[in-house]
Structures are given as structure tokens and as C-alpha cells.
Amino acid sequence: MKLFFIVVSSAFLAVLIFTPYGFPLVFVFLVPYFIFLIQENSVIKLFLGSFLFKLIYWLVLTYFILDPLPYLWLVAIFLALPAGIIVLKRVIRSAGYLLLLTFVSVGYSIVDYLAVKYSLIPAFIGYLGVALGNGYFLGLAKYGGLFGLGLFAALINGVLAFFILEYIDFYRRSIKIRRFADVKNFIFAVIFALFILFLGIFISQWGIADRKKEYVSLNNSFKAAIISVDYDFDGGFYPSPRYFSLEQIAFIENFIAKKISVLEEQLKNKHFDLVVLPEALLDVELSDSADAKALTDFKISNNDVLIREFSGLAKRLKTPLLANFVTIREKNRYNSAVFFGVGGEILGIYDKNILVYGGEYWPFGNWHPFYYDIFRSRLSPRLPVFNSKYAYTPGSSDKIFNLARGARFGVLICLESQIPDRVATLERAGVNFLINPSSNNWIKIGLENYLFMSLNLRRIMAVSSNKPIIISGRRDYAGIIFPDGRVEIADFKTPLNLAIYEGEIRF
């Protein structure tokens, strides 16, 4: 019972730190679990407690993942932490609290980072450093990125666990043998924790000020229109890929044209250097309907209606336009960002490199676990787990796009913006800014909290990469995250079910 209480208390505190008001808990939520790792000597209980801690943590935090396989794989990686503790205790039998807790703190940040990185779903959104994405410590991301923030938070938890363990040992002694010397360790732990916290705030604010100074000193700029839409923007119109009758094709063409005209009405008679549309602005996929030029130049054999409408919009606005939709090329299906020039021509395509397990690819062929059938009526029929023809092919390379004014940008589709390696790759490629089109239509419950966590993580990515990030999505924000962590977003226009941010980006 004691084991269960300690582990569960840490796990549920972990969940609370990812709410808008849970920020202070990031420095204490691991303390019960760390104390458990230090004081428990049973190998079975160490593994069982760690298994329960991480499983409860991820189940409650990422409730929107229905498949237990990603959880089990992530937890299996995480169990390297108690294994390391067991080995350390055996090798160094007289190890003190300080050595053990240093190992635990550093080990936790490393193992947890590797677990979310190499799980079936790279769920960095639940890494402990994300909780620092909207507070006084955000600037530390300039120096250590997401992992650095996680290590900082884990070390503070380790120091507090050291204080508690020393305090407990002190009061276990009889009154007669208590001395000031026995108190010095936990007094030192409190002073050291406070020192690290204030030093972290100072370094963070220094980093933020430095990022802001660098950004405002840039001499060039361009103006962008960034669009996000609500779930009901296309009125629940989601035709699946199949053959359509002539009447259905006519309806689809008319429907898409009307929605594009809504956007055009909001953008016309204004000057922009770039228009950014969200992922799956219109969730329609027409197979075997090729635009002649797109087929010739880029081998795109589907979605001629979307290509024609996006091309026409760019041409009429006389503005480059980035759109996101499904492309089929040489029988491969891609989640693609397509860049249209001012003349309506396609200038380039980026295909999403990192696909989402279950939703965009399925590694087990025609087999799927029985529990998918239980939820089948609640899931989209266009999932590769049910039909392999809906599986996407991952992109094999990066694509850097150029604006006429000299700015270079890369695209991170949906969850790619939450993966540090993807952001770092584009940073090394020399982009001036990043664009993150996304779709959150798949989230049924808890969208507000998911957006909070996602925004925290994207702010960390902006600060660590020193690049502005344009965010545009279905049921997502429309705006810009600047390299100093500032966020500017537009409000939704309820009758139109859309938000349009008009802003300037420096480069």
C-alpha cells in the first residue's frame, strides 16, 4: 500500500504540471518517486513501482492514445532507470543520498527523454521540461533545449528529495545525539535549491533578452497572413477517397470554391508576402483526378480540384501560398505541404518525414489488436490500421522554400514541430523561420489542455532554435511564436469559423 501511494502521488502530480496552473509542481512532483527509488531495496518493487509510475503518468496525460502498445514500449525503455539504480546500489554499497540522487536526477532526464524519443509515438509533449515552456525558466532552452529544461527540473526535485531524506534521518536519531552538524546537510540542500532556482531565473531572463535583441536587430521583414479554422469550417464534409459520380464531383467543386471564396474575401485588397493555410483546410481527398500540370511537373495524380482552387487563390491574391493536403505520386500517398507561387504555379513540395503511428502508418500489415474493433465505430474509417491504402509514405528529405524577398523557410507538419531533432535539422539547413501547419480534429476531449501543452513545447522549440515559428491549424492557433518566446495569435471569428493573423516576421 505504501509503495502504491508513493508512486501514484508522483504520477498524478506529474499530470497536474501540464495544466495552466501547475507550473510550480514541476519542481516537486518527482520527489516522492525519487525517495522511493532511493529507499526501496526490493528489485521486484523497484521495477513494479517504476512501471506503475510511468504507466499512470502517460495513460492520464495522453488519454487520446487508444493503443496500449506505445505505452508499453515507452515504459519498457523507461525501466532502464530502476535497472541502473539497482546496479549502482550493488556496486557502491555505501553510496550516500547525494550520489544516488545525482544519478537518479540525471538518469531520469536522460531515460525519460530517450523513452519519448524512441517510443512508437514520439510524445515529447509529455516530457517534464515542457512544463517550463510558459514560465520564468523558458530562456534556459537557449542553452540546453528541451532536454536542458528537463534536466534542470529533475535536479531541483533531486535536491528537495535529498533535503527530505536528510530531515527524516535527523529526526530518527534520539534527541541526545542531535547536533547542528547533523542539520547542515538539509540546510545546505534548501539553500542550494533556492540558489539554483534564482540562478536559473537569472540565466533564463538573460537568454530571453538576448534572443529578443538578436531578433529586433534583423534588418529585413515580410508580411504574412496566417489562417486557422475551426472543426466546422467545412461543415462536416469529409468524403473518403473513392470514385464519385458526376453530380458528386460537381457538388465537391462548388463546395470547395465557396470555402476558398470565404478566405479570399478576408484577404483581398491587402498586401502580403505569404499566405499560410492549415493542414487539411478542406478534408477532401479525390483519387484519380489529376491536374495536368501538377501531374507533368510533380507526378501528382489526385486532388485536381484542391490544386486548381489553391493555385487560383494564390494567383488572384498575387501572393505565394502554402497549403497542406494529401498528394498521391507514383502510387505513394503523402501528407504534403505544397508551395504555390504568385502565378499559381507549384514551386515545391515537402512531404511529412515523421509519421504518426496508427493514424498515418501501421507497421503490422493486415493484423490489428482486437480492441481496435471495439472502438472502430468511433474512429475514422480512413486509418491504415483498418485499410493499408490509407497509409502514408514518409518523406525522404527536407525541402527549403524561398520567398522572393530572400527569406528561407522549412515546414514542420503537425507533430513534427514537437520533435527537437526535426527542428534542429531545419535550423542547421539555414532557414530564417519555420511553418507549422497542423490539424487537431482528431482530439475529441481535452483540446484546451492539449493546446496549452503543445504551445509550451513549440515555444521551447522557437527559443532553442532561435527561429520564429508560424502556427496554423485546424482547431489550433493562428499566429507566430517569436525566438524570445513571445506569442502573438488572432482571435477566431465565430460566424466564419476561422482566425486570420496578419503580422510581420523579421529575417
Short description:
The chain has 507 residues and is of the alpha/beta class.
Task: Give a written overview of the molecule.
There is one protein chain. By secondary structure, the protein is α/β, with parallel strands linked by helices. The protein has 2 domains: 2-216, no CATH class; 221-355 and 392-506, 4-Layer Sandwich (Nitrilase/N-carbamoyl-D-aminoacid amidohydrolase), CATH 3.60.110. Helices cover 46% and strands 14% of the residues. The mean pLDDT is 88.
Proportion of helical residues:
40-55%
SSE order in H/E notation?
HHHHHHHHEHEHHEEEHEEHEHEEEE
Please give the domain count. Answer: 2
Order of strands, main sheet, comes to 5-4-3-2-1-12
The overall average pLDDT, rounded, is: 88
Radius of gyration, whole Å? 26 Å
Share in β-strands: 5-15%
What is CATH's topology name of the largest domain? Nitrilase/N-carbamoyl-D-aminoacid amidohydrolase
Helical segment count: 14
CATH class of the largest domain: Alpha Beta
Main beta sheet strand tally, sense and closure = 6 strands, mixed
CATH architecture of the largest domain: 4-Layer Sandwich
Low-confidence stretches: none
* CATH superfamily (homologous) name of the largest domain: Carbon-nitrogen hydrolase
Layout of strands and helices, then pairs:
Layout: H1 2-16, H2 31-39, H3 43-61, H4 68-78, H5 80-91, H6 97-118, H7 141-172, H8 180-216, E1 221-229, H9 246-267, E2 274-279, H10 292-298, H11 304-317, E3 321-329, E4 332-340, E5 346-351, H12 371-374, E6 401-402, E7 408-411, H13 420-428, E8 433-439, H14 447-465, E9 469-474, E10 479-481, E11 487-489, E12 498-506
Parallel strand pairs: 1-2, 2-3, 7-8, 8-9
Antiparallel strand pairs: 1-12, 3-4, 4-5, 6-7, 9-10, 10-11
Helix pairs in contact: 1-2, 1-3, 2-7, 3-4, 3-5, 4-6, 5-6, 6-7, 7-8, 7-14, 9-11
